[in-house]
Every structure is written in C-alpha cells, then in structure tokens.
Specification:
The chain contains seven helices and ten strands. By secondary structure, it is an alpha+beta fold. It has two domains: 63 residues, Orthogonal Bundle (Arc Repressor Mutant, subunit A), CATH 1.10.10.10; 158 residues, Chorismate lyase-like (Chorismate lyase), CATH 3.40.1410.10. Helix 1 crosses helix 3 and helix 2 packs across helix 3. The longest helix is centred in the N-terminal third of the chain and has 15 residues.
Length: 238
C-alpha cells in the first residue's frame, strides 16, 4: 500500500507521455511536480523508468522531450555481430555521427585490457550510432597501432570496427564481454544527448584473434529502450 501513490504517479506520467506528440517538450519539472502534487526528487525518480525505456529524453539546459515509439534492435548474445549487421537484419537504418579517430597512448586500464605495456601507441575510435536519426549507442574501440592505424579508416567508415576487421580478412576468434548497468559519465552523456548519470547498458569487451591475442578493447554504451539483448541456453545434464 505504501507504494500506491508512487504507482499512481507513474500511471499519470505514462498517460501524459502517451498523449504528448513525439518530439514535443514536456512541462518543466517545477511545473509538472506542482501539477502532480509531488516533490521534484520524487518526480525525477518516477521519470527515470520512462527514460530507461527510451520513451522520454532529457536534454541538458533544454528540458524533457517525448521520444515516442523507437526502433528496437533485438539480438542474441551467442554470436558477436555489429550493430550494422543487427540493424540490416531488421531493415533498420543505422548511421554514425560524432566520429573521432585518434592516436593515444595506453594508460593502465587500457594496457591491461589489451595486454600491452603502458605507453603503447594505440588507435581509438569513438562514435555515436543513431537509429532512426536518434542517438542509440556510444561505442569506443581501442586497438594497438600494429592492428589498426588511424589512417586505415577512411572518411566513409561505417562505424563498425568489427566489420572492418572481418572485411579486411583478420582472423578473429573469441570475444569476452562484461555486461552491466552503469551511470552515464559526462563524456558519454553529451554525445548521446542524455543527462549525466542516466542509466545505460554497458559492455566492456575484449576481441581476440584465433591465437588468443587481444586485438580490440572496447566500451559500448547502449540506451536501454533501443535494445533487447537475450541469451539462449541449453539445460545442463547435471
């Protein structure tokens, strides 16, 4: 019973969002909190549910906007595929923006992830992947320059390092990924057009070649409302 007022608040917000055209800004937080008879802290807590579903999007200094129906990329995790490949299978258009290709030197974390000495020269590829024109994921791939040089990627780069390596003929083997929920850091929130500390789904992955050498250490941040990931597993025999 104690949660009933909060459930009613969420129901009221759901009705408001459903009745607001996609792309339109909601009433400001102070006005909306007053209208619904709750504190701004309670309102933000209730609105976070709709943010993680991808139904609304907060923009720094601008307000909260209704997103409306979004294209959902549904994919299994048993086989490593690029977002481009997933999207093509579902007839969705994925585009890359905010592309940055740079030379960096390995810090302690990246050196550990790639199993290279600190200070090793690396190529880092950062970009936003957009579905239906809206930011859906922020991808960061870091590779040794012996594997990929900044000059190897042309201005027509599609956004998928994985597809680039496959097309080039690299012999790729296993990929290991740690999956978790995380709060968006400032440098990820800004290109994704969300608020700092909004909830994202994070994959931290190591891509290895067939000899077991790590060739790509990546951080991928997904806005939950755009993705449904699943795993198919067989029941063990004991």
């Amino acid at each position: 019973m104690a949660n009933f007022p909060f459930q009613r608040l969420q129901a009221d917000l759901a009705a408001l969002i459903a009745s607001t055209p996609a792309g339109q800004r909601l009433t400001s937080e102070p006005e909306l909190a007053k209208q619904l008879g709750v504190s701004r802290a309670t309102l933000r807590e209730a609105m976070r549910t709709f943010e993680t579903q991808g139904l609304i999007r907060r923009r720094q200094g601008s307000g909260t906007y209704v997103v409306g129906n979004v294209p959902v990329i549904d994919a299994g995790l048993e086989v490593l595929e690029s977002l481009d490949t997933m999207a093509r299978r579902m007839n969705l258009e994925i585009k890359v923006s905010d592309l940055h290709i740079e030379q960096v030197q390995a810090d302690k974390e990246t050196a550990t992830g790639l199993d290279v000495p600190e200070g090793t020269y690396l190529t880092r590829v950062r970009r936003v992947m957009r579905a239906d024109g809206r930011p859906a994921a922020y991808l960061i791939d870091t590779l040794p320059e012996t594997i990929l040089k900044p000059s190897d990627l042309s201005t027509e780069f599609s956004g998928s390092v994985l597809d680039f390596l496959i097309t080039r003929g690299d012999k790729l083997g296993l990929s290991r990924a740690a999956i978790s929920a995380t709060n968006a850091p400032a440098d990820v929130a800004k290109p994704l057009e969300i608020q700092r500390d909004d909830v994202l789904l994070q994959f931290v992955s190591q891509l290895c070649d067939t000899s077991g050498k790590v060739v790509d250490y990546s951080h991928s941040y997904f806005i939950p409302g755009y993705f449904h990931f699943h795993v198919n597993r067989r029941v063990g025999n004991g």
